[in-house]
Amino acid sequence: MKLGDKVSVLRKEKGLNRDELGKMIGTSGAVIGRYERDEITPSVEIAKKMADALNVSLDYLTGSTNYIVQDKKMLYRLELLQKIDKPERERILHVMDSLLRDAQMSLTQQKLA
Question: Which of 4, 17, 28, 64 would bridge 36 by S-S if both were Cys, CB 3.0 to 4.6 A apart?
Answer without folding.
Answer: 4
